[in-house]
Write a structure and sequence with these properties.
- By secondary structure, the protein is α/β, with parallel strands linked by helices.
- The chain has a domain of 169 residues: Dihydrodipicolinate Reductase, domain 2, CATH 3.30.360.10.
- Helix content is 31%, strand content 16%.
- The protein has 15 helices and 15 strands.
- It has a 9-stranded mixed β-sheet with strand order 13-12-11-7-10-9-8-14-15. A 6-stranded parallel β-sheet has the order 3-2-1-4-5-6, sandwiched between helices.
- Helix 3 links the parallel strand 2 and strand 3.
Length: 458
């Protein structure tokens, strides 16, 4: 790839240099990304992984732009996209796509399973491409910090696909909190039906990988396995939809939904990095597959004169008890409660579609007195996808760029590591270190196999 400088350092030297660079607090500089087109021009877009959620993202970002290249290791999902984008070149391996088409691509979308997010994004960003990456941003803490740093160095427009961050409800919640409508907040309660049920989960906990099944015709299973060095055979329990519970490929229920449901409180309260993460296990910890019913407590320190905050996360089938004064029904599928000194804020579901105050009488009173309602002061955006496209074209900042979504993902991954190991941990964000849990510390930067390491991709 002619547009990228060659990488000649050894892996040992690379990791030593990276560890030194990441051992100090990383603060992304407040600069605008370079634009690649005018507001009315078309972008040349490539997409990697478009079988399920990635296909929806591709569809949303393609409107008004040129889709020039598509990569998915399972050609059985190519059909309708070949009809929709007949001019696009199709690949099984994104690395070959970027090598051959790099000079024709402005921006790259990533809709693969979690374990390959980093490799795709890192290679594309190293080539100077703007990126959209589905949530969770990456699969490990080191990967999150590395992409944040790379985005700032390359001055790129980035976006994580936590759709709710672009919703009206998220802005209302932040505006209500900032206006003092519920007073100070020391506790946030969140929950989901995953992994006991929900898309991509079935609650059937496994202790070993399933046996081999016939591979779908033409599929590149080696490319699907990506950085995972284990000899894991193809099985429908892994592809196409049920990979999330398996730790080598997904991040469990918390990794799937936490970037949605915890996001609004993380943003509204300006939480930053947790000091400690604790876990209550309903089932035994499992090094291969997520268990059911875990409860995670994130302990965030005081900041800017505001008190410490505990964010509690309940996974299916565990459910929280309603705090005092909370009189809305709490659906089993998921929800969010911000507990304030003067009542609180609640929304049902994984995303902030319909936030409201509690108790209900307070909400009814607020809605009836329009002249006393909090003014809308936060800019609105036209959805997570269009926000990214507009930001790429105009060189502006997207709403969930990696300087924000990277630290959010780090917090989520810490919770997943607590569940995975069955133990709490202390987190030193400045030094990228986990204390009190050596098993989790060993997973800060798992070894990737040859061909998938940063020096192989840059």
């Amino acid at each position: 790839m002619n547009s990228t400088p060659s990488f000649t350092a050894s892996r040992r030297k690379f990791l030593k240099q990276s560890a030194a660079a990441l051992s100090v607090p990383f603060i992304a500089p407040q600069i605008l990304a370079k634009s690649v087109a005018g507001a009315n021009d078309k972008l040349n877009i490539a997409w990697v992984g478009f079988g399920n959620q990635g296909g929806g993202d591709l569809n949303a970002c393609s409107n008004g732009n040129n889709v020039v290249a598509l990569a998915d290791c399972d050609p059985n999902v190519w059909g309708k996209w070949k009809q929709k984008f007949p001019e696009a070149k199709f690949y099984k391996d994104f690395r070959k796509m970027l090598e051959e088409m790099g000079d024709k691509i402005d921006a790259v979308g990533v809709g693969t399973p979690d374990h390959t997010h980093f490799a795709v994004a890192y290679m594309a960003m190293s080539m100077g491409k703007h990126v959209f990456v589905q949530k969770p941003l990456v699969h490990s803490l080191w990967q999150a910090r590395t992409l944040q740093k790379l985005a700032a160095e390359k001055n790129l427009t980035t976006q994580m696909g936590n759709q709710g961050h672009a919703f009206e409800g998220a802005r209302l919640i932040k505006e209500w909190y900032d206006a003092g409508l519920i007073g100070e907040v020391k506790e946030v309660i969140t929950w989901t039906d995953r992994p006991k049920s929900g898309w991509g989960f079935n609650g059937q906990v496994k202790t070993e990988f399933p046996p081999a099944q016939p591979l779908p015709e033409g599929m590149d299973w080696d490319a699907w396995l990506g950085p995972v060095g284990k000899d894991v055979p193809f099985n429908k329990a892994l592809h196409p939809t049920t990979w999330r519970p398996w730790w080598d490929f997904g991040c469990g229920g918390l990794g799937d939904i936490g970037c949605h449901t915890i996001d609004t409180a993380y943003w509204a309260l300006g939480l930053g990095a947790p000091e400690r993460v604790d876990v209550e296990m309903a089932e035994a910890a499992n090094p291969i597959h997520t268990p059911n019913g875990s409860i995670v407590s994130f302990r965030f320190p005081a900041r800017d004169g505001k008190p410490p905050v505990t964010v509690k996360w309940y996974e299916g089938p565990s459910m929280p008890e309603a705090p005092e004064g909370m009189d809305w029904d709490m659906p089993g599928g998921g929800g969010f409660i911000m507990v304030g000194e003067k009542g609180g804020i609640f929304h049902p579901g994984m995303r902030p579609n319909s936030p409201r105050l509690y108790p209900q009488a307070r909400w009814n009173e607020y809605r009836a007195n329009k002249d006393q309602q909090v003014p809308k002061t936060i800019p609105r955006v036209p959805g997570i996808h269009r926000d990214w496209i507009d930001a790429v074209k105009n060189g502006t900042k997207s709403c969930s760029d990696f300087s924000y979504s990277g630290p959010l993902t780090e917090a989520i991954l810490l919770g997943s590591l607590a569940i995975r190991t069955g133990k709490g941990l202390a987190w030193n964000a400045d030094e990228l270190k986990i204390e009190g849990n050596p098993e989790a510390a060993a997973l800060i930067n798992p070894e990737a196999r040859k061909g998938w390491r940063p020096e192989d991709l840059a």
